[in-house]
What we know:
It is built from 4 helices and 4 strands; from the N terminus they run αββββααα. The chain is mainly alpha-helical.
Amino acid sequence: MEKVTKEQAEAAVQTVRQLKIQASELAGRIKDAEAVVEAYSVEHLGEFADGRLALDAGIIALKAGTAKPVKEGKPLSTAARAELAAALPAAYVKVACDFGVLFQSQDKAVRQILKARGIEIVREDRFVVL
């Protein structure tokens, strides 16, 4: 790649900032339109066939969301999730590592375990325009 001048970088940063503003505005408009589609879909749920409702402008499809635990209409806290996981049979519980914490860990035992398995925790940093 050719050497980039300060002027080129300045122009690129300005372009990124302008486009991010436009993207944010468009995202807001999309969110508003999706709220209208959702309200219409809820009102006409009985008209869906095979999870789809045809309109002149397009098709609305019912897409299953992710399952999540709630209690009294509110999401479970991390502590409540851990308590639930401890009470459930092992076949329904998945163990997961926090790789962000592992990346920063200076714990020698953790480092030895990773080294013994030939595993390195890396972080893929990138540059962003603010």
